[in-house]
Amino acid sequence: MEQTNEMMIEFDSRSCNESFARVAVAAFMTQLNPTLEEVADVKTALSEAVTNAIVHGYENEIKKVTVSCSISGQVLTLTVSDKGVGIADIARAMEPLFTTKPDTERCGMGFAFMEAFMDDVQVKSAVGQGTAVTMKKRIGRIAGEYHD
């Protein structure tokens, strides 16, 4: 039976805490002996999810963002959650170039980047209750195949 290791951090929804989350998750995943590319992929996807929580979930109000991580075998699972405004239409929100803030520098590629850098991305949300983005990535590939 595979052992699971878990961690959770909670921080204020300030953009300066995005880098804190990136470093914490990168440190946690070192136990899997990831490549630099794998670390960069996870950090990029995590940045997008945390930024979405801060900018869209809380609309720049200062509240709490939670990042939880688990490792089971070679699979890293990350969940970024907020208790913000929620997403009314998840499928539409996940379309490339869609943004709810077209008057800002947002390009609407957050979910597309998450999907490009992670193996699986799931979004659960309820209007007025918040959003949870769960992403998975298998660490340790050989010639395009998984190994344990």
Automatic annotation (TrEMBL):
GO terms for biological process: asexual sporulation; negative regulation of sporulation resulting in formation of a cellular spore; sporulation resulting in formation of a cellular spore. Keywords: ATP-binding, Kinase, Nucleotide-binding, Serine/threonine-protein kinase, Sporulation, Transferase. It comes from Marvinbryantia formatexigens DSM 14469. Binds to sigma F and blocks its ability to form an RNA polymerase holoenzyme (E-sigma F). Phosphorylates SpoIIAA on a serine residue. This phosphorylation may enable SpoIIAA to act as an anti-anti-sigma factor that counteracts SpoIIAB and thus releases sigma F from inhibition. It catalyses: L-threonyl-[protein] + ATP = O-phospho-L-threonyl-[protein] + ADP + H(+); L-seryl-[protein] + ATP = O-phospho-L-seryl-[protein] + ADP + H(+). Residues 37-141 form the Histidine kinase/HSP90-like ATPase domain. Belongs to the anti-sigma-factor family. The gene is spoIIAB. PANTHER family: ANTI-SIGMA-F FACTOR RSBW, ANTI-SIGMA-F FACTOR RSBW-RELATED. InterPro entries: Anti-sigma-factor_SerPK, Anti-sigma_F, HATPase_C_sf, HATPase_dom. It is an enzyme of class 2 (transferase). Its EC number is 2.7.11.1. This is Anti-sigma F factor. GO terms for molecular function: ATP binding; protein serine kinase activity; protein serine/threonine kinase activity; sigma factor antagonist activity. The keyword Metal-binding does not apply.
